[in-house]
């Protein structure tokens, strides 16, 4: 398998794992405060990452890598988890998942700014078309119903796109799993301290689904998914492989309907299928 094909395969596995993030977060915020959930998932993943780095005796990043690791931590360790957790106290996971359709465009833009990539002009047509479909859906649902929730999701998408692109660029030197592990370790002291400060008054009242959600976002969304995702972006290109995120709403909607019994409207399915159709065109002109 050549490098580009391997990149798309790794990226696809990463998208499958990330597809469960918003439904799992929705489950978790039913029992945990959003701030505690954000810092707890980062602290748990950070402790595991620290153990892995020590076990495999990975070399430490250079001082010149530290700013990029801080950006990664800001985007995907703190920014996206916190903003989505706050948003999911106001909107359903099915509604928020559709906003994930904006992630490919956000990632591609930061891939140009931070990664130095230059996709074909036709690439932007397909990427913008998919994003426009998502934005049109949000408007058709009436953003006045939960304007703060939608704004929080948009902010999360921007932070996540930056973290994805920066991490992919750094993965070319450090490796995919090493980047997210070091970013988690960099933020670990603060996250661990905040988790202890924000402990719930009692764990006895927290139901099993909330614990399951916390476990998923800590192990898979915060750590394991990035092993595949950053490697895929580094191998196949940030802008191109990033378009696989257009598949994420489809998988996420299925999970929301199956696990949370949330209603998935026909228009949600139509929009999701339409934006999935954009990935083929974007892939063709990614480089």
Automatic annotation (TrEMBL):
It holds the Pfam family EamA. Its main location: membrane. It is found in: Membrane. It is a multi-pass membrane protein. The chain crosses the membrane at residues 7-29, 35-56, 68-88, 94-113, 122-139, 145-165, 177-197, 203-230, 237-257, 263-282. SUPFAM superfamilies: Multidrug resistance efflux transporter EmrE. InterPro entries: AA-Vitamin_Transporters, EamA_dom, EmrE-like. Keywords: Membrane, Transmembrane, Transmembrane helix. Belongs to the EamA transporter family. This is Drug/metabolite transporter (DMT)-like permease. It comes from Rhizobium metallidurans. The lineage of its organism: Bacteria, Pseudomonadati, Pseudomonadota, Alphaproteobacteria, Hyphomicrobiales.
């Amino acid at each position: 398998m050549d490098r580009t094909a391997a990149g798309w395969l790794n990226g696809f596995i990463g998208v499958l794992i990330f597809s469960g993030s918003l439904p799992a977060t929705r489950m978790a915020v039913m029992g945990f405060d959003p701030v505690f959930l954000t810092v707890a998932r980062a602290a748990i993943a950070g402790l595991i990452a620290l153990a892995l780095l020590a076990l495999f005796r990975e070399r430490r990043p250079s001082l010149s890598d530290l700013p990029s690791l801080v950006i990664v931590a800001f985007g995907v360790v703190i920014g996206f988890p916190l903003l989505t957790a706050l948003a999911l106290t106001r909107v359903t996971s099915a509604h928020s998942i559709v906003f994930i359709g904006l992630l490919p465009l956000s990632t591609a833009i930061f891939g140009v700014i931070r990664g130095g990539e230059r996709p074909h002009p036709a690439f932007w047509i397909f990427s913008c078309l998919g994003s426009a479909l998502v934005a049109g859906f949000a408007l058709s649902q009436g953003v006045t119903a939960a304007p703060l929730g939608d704004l929080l999701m948009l902010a999360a998408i921007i932070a996540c796109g930056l973290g994805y692109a920066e991490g992919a660029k750094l993965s070319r030197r450090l490796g995919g799993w090493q980047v997210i592990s070091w970013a988690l370790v960099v933020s670990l002291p603060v996250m661990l301290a905040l988790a202890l400060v924000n402990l719930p008054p009692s764990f006895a009242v927290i139901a099993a689904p909330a614990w399951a959600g916390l476990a998923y976002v800590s192990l898979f969304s915060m750590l394991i998914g990035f092993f595949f995702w950053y490697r895929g972006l580094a191998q196949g290109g940030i802008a191109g492989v990033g378009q696989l995120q257009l598949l994420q709403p489809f998988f996420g909607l299925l999970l929301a309907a199956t696990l949370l019994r949330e209603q998935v409207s026909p228009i949600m399915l139509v929009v999701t299928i339409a934006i999935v159709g954009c990935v083929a065109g974007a892939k063709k002109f990614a480089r």
